[in-house]
Amino acid sequence: MLPDFRVRQRDYLLEISRALTQELDLDRVLDRIVKLAAELLASSAGLIACVRQMDGVLQLPTASTQSLLSS
């Protein structure tokens, strides 16, 4: 039997994998992943940063826990 945290972690990872396969809108997928990761880690902040391949510039998509705090 898995410890409670490992079970929760597995459940969150399953939910994230579902989000990746069910949603085509990248912003919505990233937003869902940030929300789930923040919940799992009991965090009040989080974001996903992407690096543009052509020039290495760091981009911050719309995904952040800002929407987590307002929901």
Explain this structure to me?
There is one protein chain. This protein is mostly helical and 71 residues long. It has one domain (4-70). The chain contains three helices and two strands, in the order ααββα. It has helices at 4-22, 26-41, 66-70; strands at residues 50-51, 58-59. The protein has a two-stranded antiparallel sheet. Strand 1 and strand 2 (58-59) form a beta hairpin. Helix 1 runs antiparallel to helix 2. The longest helix is centred in the first third of the chain and has 19 residues, at 4-22. The model has no long low-confidence stretch (mean pLDDT 78).
Q: What is this structure's SSE topology?
A:
Blueprint: H1 4-22, H2 26-41, E1 50-51, E2 58-59, H3 66-70
Antiparallel strand pairs: 1-2
Helix pairs in contact: 1-2
